[in-house]
């Protein structure tokens, strides 16, 4: 079965660092772009960035450039999204996804990781 | 950045009715337009790509049309499981791909 499984919910304080993960199975992880999408509570969806695990080519949405770091370890079929210093405004649900059947069409999604940043 | 604008924000419909959702792009995206459905507590689900191609397993009551800057998602006869939020998304220009703000289809 093709799937993405994300790490569990996180509760952090402002200023702390965080790295969440997205593990793929059932497909050739190195051969597909993996994307990250943010959804703030009650709001819409926003693309944050994408990574090609095969060569770690990474592209960020301008809104998220410099705010987060996207990385991947192809040997363990895992992509990551990390923050060096969290803010309350980083509280959101984060999804990873990839385009299995058609390039740039993201049809396989992880279950989401909820991040709560509160003092 | 291409801005995607969906209308209406909320659609109040009864089961069995036909629902028509609109999506407009601020500049042409050709046919590089996808529609997603999202239910509470769930990840988005791909419904339509290429403006009009149904994704695997999507019922035939869902159809998409349009090209350039104007797009439509039609649900021919609403079923109980169709009440959800629908997002359009362009994948013509990166960075970044962009979503519309969503249309909520609710039970009247």
Quickly list its features.
heterodimer; A: mainly beta; four-stranded antiparallel beta sheet; B: 108 residues; mainly beta; 11 strands; 0% helix; globular
Can you walk me through this structure?
The complex is a heterodimer of chains A (119) and B (108). With 119 residues, chain A is an all-beta fold. Chain A is built from no helices and eleven strands. The model of chain A has no long low-confidence stretch (mean pLDDT 97). Chain B is mainly β and 108 residues long. In chain B, the strands form two sheets. In chain B, strands 2, 4, 5, 6, 9, 10 and 11 form a seven-stranded mixed sheet that branches. In chain B, strand 7 and strand 8 form a beta hairpin. Chain B is globular and about 35 Å long. At the A-B interface, strand 5 of A face strand 4, strand 5 and strand 10 of B.
Which structural class best describes the helix and strand composition of chain A? Answer: mainly beta
Give the beta-strand count of chain A. 11
N/C terminus separation of chain A: 40 Å
Query: With helices defined by DSSP (H or I, 4 residues minimum), what is the helix count of chain B?
Result: 0
Straight-line N-to-C gap of chain B: 35 Å
Low-pLDDT stretches of chain A are none
Short description:
The complex is a heterodimer of chains A (119) and B (108). Chain A has 119 residues and is mainly beta. Helix content of chain A is 0%, strand content 49%.
Give me the secondary-structure topology:
The complex is a heterodimer of chains A (119) and B (108).
Chain A: E1 3-6, E2 10-12, E3 18-25, E4 34-39, E5 45-52, E6 57-60, E7 69-73, E8 78-83, E9 92-98, E10 108-109, E11 113-117
Parallel strand pairs in A: 2-11
Antiparallel strand pairs in A: 1-3, 3-8, 4-5, 4-9, 5-6, 7-8, 9-10, 9-11
Chain B: E1 4-7, E2 10-13, E3 19-25, E4 33-38, E5 45-49, E6 53-54, E7 62-67, E8 70-75, E9 85-90, E10 98-99, E11 103-107
């Amino acid at each position: 079965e093709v799937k993405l499984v994300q790490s569990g919910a996180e509760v952090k304080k402002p200023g702390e660092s965080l790295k969440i993960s997205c593990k793929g199975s059932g497909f050739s992880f190195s051969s597909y772009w993996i994307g990250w999408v943010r959804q703030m509570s009650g709001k819409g969806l926003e693309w944050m960035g994408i990574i090609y695990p095969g060569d770690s080519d990474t592209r960020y949405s301008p809104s998220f450039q410099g705010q987060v770091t996207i990385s991947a370890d192809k040997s363990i079929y895992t992509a990551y999204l990390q923050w060096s210093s969290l803010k309350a405004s980083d509280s959101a649900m984060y999804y990873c996804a990839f385009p299995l059947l058609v390039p740039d069409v993201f049809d396989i999604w992880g279950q989401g990781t909820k991040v709560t940043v509160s003092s | 950045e291409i801005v995607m604008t969906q209308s209406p924000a909320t659609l109040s419909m009864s089961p069995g009715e036909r629902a028509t959702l609109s999506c407009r792009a601020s500049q042409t995206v050709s046919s590089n337009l996808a529609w997603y459905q999202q239910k509470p507590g769930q990840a988005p689900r791909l419904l339509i790509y290429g403006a009009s191609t149904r994704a695997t397993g999507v019922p035939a009551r869902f159809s998409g049309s349009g090209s350039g800057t104007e797009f439509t998602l039609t649900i021919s006869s609403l079923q109980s499981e169709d009440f959800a939020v629908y997002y359009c998304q362009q994948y013509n220009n990166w960075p970044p791909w962009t979503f519309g703000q969503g249309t909520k289809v609710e039970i009247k």
